Amino acid sequence: MPEVTKRGAFVVIEGLDRSGKSTQCTLLLEQLRSAGVDVKLLKVPDRTTTIGKVIDSYLRKESELDDRAIHLLFSANRWEVASSIESSLRAGTLILCDRYAFSGLAFSSAQGLPYTWCRAPDAGLPAPDITLLLDVSPEAQAKRGGFGAERYEQTELQERVRAAFERVGDEMGGGGRWVVVDADAEQEAVARELWRHVEPLAQGTDEPLRRLWDEEEERRRVSELYL
């Protein structure tokens, strides 16, 4: 029998603003390293690239752009790192990603852009093996320092983003690939819950790398639902 070669797992942490996402990514990164896992942390958008600097200026309310233009820039920023993600995964490195395409889809559609239009530019990107969505209540958001400092940190918009994330979760289907975590809980409790889901993937996976919103895969998943 041929030997099965494992690749690194692709783990995405998503969430509403001020959900503790970046803090939890840091804690999870430390726990993975302590367990001897070869892991790389990515933050999307990557604000250090040429495109990322334009995005950063927009998010800080220092410049204005058309909603469609900024959505496409966010997508282009993700495509900038796509090949790096794939090569790292093939080399056995676990990729831990702070936000990904789901945020772009949720935030842009929450602002009134057509959902399917928002989804289209990211079709074909590497798909995560698991996405952990940190869900935080409006009350908890408002109590957390700095809420409102960036463009999208508005309570009504965040509620629409939550609804959009719910739609994304429904589309991603079951199988543990999309997990909602209560981010109102204490920091340590959230960290334990994240580790519970990530630990089984820490040493890699022999599953083939999927593509986001792959048409053939989506048709197969939908047909399975009605078998």
Give a short synopsis of this structure:
With 227 residues, this protein is of the alpha/beta class. It has 9 helices and 5 strands, in the order βαβααβααβααβαα.
Walk me through what this model shows.
- It is a single chain.
- With 227 residues, this protein is of the alpha/beta class.
- The protein has a single domain, classed as Rossmann fold (3-Layer(aba) Sandwich), CATH 3.40.50.300.
- 48% of the residues lie in helices and 12% in strands.
- It has 9 helices and 5 strands, in the order βαβααβααβααβαα.
- The protein has helices at residues 21-34, 50-59, 67-90, 101-110, 115-119, 138-143, 155-172, 187-198, 215-225; strands at residues 10-15, 39-43, 94-98, 130-135, 178-182.
- A 5-stranded parallel sheet has the order 2-3-1-4-5, with helices on both faces.
- α3 runs antiparallel to α4 (101-110) and α4 (101-110) crosses α7.
Topology, element by element:
Layout: E1 10-15, H1 21-34, E2 39-43, H2 50-59, H3 67-90, E3 94-98, H4 101-110, H5 115-119, E4 130-135, H6 138-143, H7 155-172, E5 178-182, H8 187-198, H9 215-225
Parallel strand pairs: 1-3, 1-4, 2-3, 4-5
Key terms:
single chain, 227 residues, alpha/beta, 5-stranded parallel sheet, globular
